[in-house]
Amino acid sequence: MQAALIHEHGGPERIVVQHIAKPAPGPGEALVKVGACAINHLDIFVRRGMPGLPVPLPHIGGGDIAGWVEAIGPKVSGVRVGAAVLVDPVIEGEGMLGETRRGGLAEYVTVPAGNLLPLPDEGRMADYASLPVAYGTARRMLLTRGGLVAGETVVVVGASGGVGVGCVQLGKMAGARVIACTSSAAKGEKLRELGADHVVVAKDGQFGKQVWELTGKVGADVVVDYSGKDTWPQSLRAVRKGGRLVCCGATSGYDAVIDLRYLWVREIDVRGSDGWSRGDLIELCRLVQTRRLRPVIHRVFPLSRVREAIEELEERRAFGKVIVVPDAVYSESRELSGFVQGGKQQ
């Protein structure tokens, strides 16, 4: 099968697309034919190498997978061969698919059968593959951990990334006033089209003053920040008295500084949010099926151009999700027409 292998840690050039043997499902597993695989920052971190988390090499990244059940292993019941499925990337007791276990940047992948969610249709594989890490994280962060309700104001820091775009869309769906912070006017226009009530284009990375003015010098009910070190001090200052600051990651660095004066004077509630629940994914699939939610797809690449796909994300050119599909599937125009929902064929 065709697969994108990491033979050693480093830059995008360390990814080699080659043919390897197709895996066979073991007990309790299913073999999934990959229809679409979304790329996340985790794939970049794994490729570079993460201190304290050794990855057996060669490795295959990619955790957000939609496809079809190709075969099932022993001790598997209730799974139909040929069924369209979404894979929940969190493997109990192991970690993340594409991180601690080979992922979906390949034609086939083996996964625990219990991680399969049946899809209501198979015509929009890229839409469904976009959901787990970005939209699942956004939904839990906003609604479960952040407690966002209709009429509140939410500030989304890094709003043009996969999680950020999901927060903008789901925040509007929840009836909140959304202030989206981004790095360029062009991305800002796209965020307005998605429903952002206000857009703040960060000048030299500074957005706190503009947010403060937009909220009438009161601050926001909820601020979501998954950037970390570079943005945390300003995010803290953008929260109103009694508001919530929610974090689900730290793409710019973990060593963030907290000015404790803001924390106690405003009685700010700092909350962490980690991943999603199976219920989040089921609800998101329902929203996609009924077309209430249309995941934003930046570009779709064939697997043979996976380096270019990852560079789109790594060099911050992407707005929304970057999707990779196996070359054989990509070349079939009948199927590809169902992959692109608002994204670009490349």
Could you characterize what this model shows?
It is built from twelve helices and 17 strands. Strands 3, 4, 5, 8, 9, 16 and 17 form a seven-stranded mixed sheet that branches. By secondary structure, the chain is of the alpha/beta class. It has helices spanning 41-48, 125-129, 131-145, 162-173, 185-193, 208-214, 232-237, 260-265, 278-289, 306-314, 327-330, 333-336; strands at 2-6, 15-19, 29-39, 64-72, 84-87, 90-91, 95-96, 108-112, 116-118, 153-157, 177-182, 198-201, 220-225, 239-247, 269-272, 297-302, 321-325. Helix 3 packs across helix 4 and helix 3 (131-145) packs across helix 9 (278-289). Residues 333-346 have low confidence and may be disordered. It has two domains: 2-130 and 295-336, Quinone Oxidoreductase, Chain A, domain 1 (Alpha-Beta Complex), CATH 3.90.180; 134-272, Quinone Oxidoreductase, Chain A, domain 1 (Alpha-Beta Complex). The protein is globular and about 60 Å long. Helix 5 (185-193) links the parallel strand 11 (177-182) and strand 12.
**Poorly predicted ranges:** 333-346
End-to-end CA span: 22 Å
Enter the CATH topology name of the largest domain: Quinone Oxidoreductase, Chain A, domain 1
CATH class of the largest domain: Alpha Beta
Percentage of residues assigned to helices: 25-40%
Averaged pLDDT: 91
Radius of gyration (CA) equals 20 Å
**Number of helices, counting only DSSP H or I runs of 4 residues or more:** 12
Strand content: 25-35%
Structural class: alpha/beta
The major pleated sheet works out as: 7 strands, mixed
Tally the beta strands.
Answer: 17
Total domains:
2
